[in-house]
Amino acid sequence: MSLPASGENEIPSCHGGLENLDSEYDYDLLEMEGSIPADIKGTFFRNGPGRQKIGSTAYGHWFDGDGMLCAFTFNEGRAHFRNRYVRTPKYLDETAAQKVLYRGFGTQIEGGLFANLFKMPANPANTSGIYHGGHLLALNEGGKPWALKPGSLETLGEFTYEGELEPSMVFSAHGKVHPSTGDYINYGAGISGFGLKGPKPCINMYRINSAGKLFRKGQIPLENFPFCHDFALSDKYAIFFLGSIVFGNMLPVILGSRTISEQVRFDDDIAMQIVVVDLNTFKEVKRFETTPGAIIHFGNAFEQGDEVIVDGMFQDNFEANDTLADVFNKTGRFGGGWYRRYRLNMKTGDLHTEQISDVESEFPTFNNEFLGTKNNVTYTACSVDNGANSFFNAISRVSFDGQADVVTLPPGFYGSEPLFVPKSNAKKEDDGYLMEVVYNGFEHNSELLIFRADDISDQVCSLKLKHHVPHQFHGFYTPEVFA
After folding, report:
1. What is the pLDDT of residues 143-195, one digit of tens each?
2. DSSP summary character for residue 340
3. Which CATH number is 23-478 given?
4. What is the C-alpha radius of gyration for the chain, rounded to an integer number of angstroms?
5. Helix (H) or strand (E) holding 93
6. What is the rounded average pLDDT of the residues 47-62?
7. How far apart are CA 43 and CA 55, in angstroms?
8. Is-above-0.90 flag for pTM?
9. Is 47 within 8 Å of 69 (Cβ atoms)?
């Protein structure tokens, strides 16, 4: 990391990292500190909003910025960077007009009620991604996946798995690949029909084989429409936490007077429901109830005897939504949750919880080869008080029993979701590296930091970009190298 010169006292906030990156790049990463490990071969993808403004107008929520994929490719000790926007209709039309033309999660079209009437939010394809079954997909839970060419990142178009994703079906940004079968499990909020009380909410579930064929669908009936951003996956089960973040009356959204963001609230009178679904039948097999709260992102889950053990980041409020709806307000703070473990006894129905780490954290990741089985190490992005804690500014390595090693970035540097990358010849769980894109607020540019996964205090390389990368959401790694 390039540290500021001595005597430079003012610490920049994270907000410069929310400025647009309108240009698209394609170049080798030649400026670095340290050296690129020779035993990394593959591609590290990141996705997130590349712009928070169109023309002079800021979008009304961080979730509404247009998706921009970044690809860091490693091969034979070299690294390459490429970024491209996903060419959704929203991106193309608003780029041409240089103004807001589509509603979003928190964005309205200029013109008041009639300009927004009956118009649902557009899909910006900006949250995460997956490479599975030969398809590179950009994901956002508000619509269908968008397919891209893995090498050039050229947009191919909306992706429906040969029509198996029906027009009303949406696709989550947090699907997971089941290691023992290679199947990709995903879901989306849906409607199973209509009754006397109106539409009947459900979770639509999808199972896609390793060849990229969607071969199984199912529906889990619900009482209310869920705010269900992520789920946990064990060997036998999909586990959904239906929390206390709920949607209010959606009629004003449909009529165009309010946004979805304005109708989402945390209701501490609503208990958290945990729904356990059999992966083979897509049927609910057990439901638990616990204290009010919400899990935004999950770590691992696995079965142990009669118990299903689930790790997740617990929130007891949704105050973050105010910050997300006004990202350029420098009084806002982007924070995290608390690393909790849930033990669900499938035989007795008992539920126990414990807090694993006392460090404010989010974006848990781990070695995906251990998904569904007991893992010993989880990595998180952290918010710590280092004099500039408006955004994630540290990473942690947390053992299963709660031993946490924390590495804090210098004040004025802001990180993101850390991702585990295995060595080419990995022999144990943490035999690899941790990659994190970091924004340098002093120089308004970004770099990719590479740490040893078994000792995150050892930073082995920093790859300098020629520009900044706006703060992104999620990423993934594949051992594939694309031409």
Report:
1. 999 999 999 999 999 999 999 999 999 999 999 999 999 999 999 999 888 87
2. E
3. 2.130.10.10
4. 21
5. helix 89-97
6. 97
7. 33
8. yes
9. yes
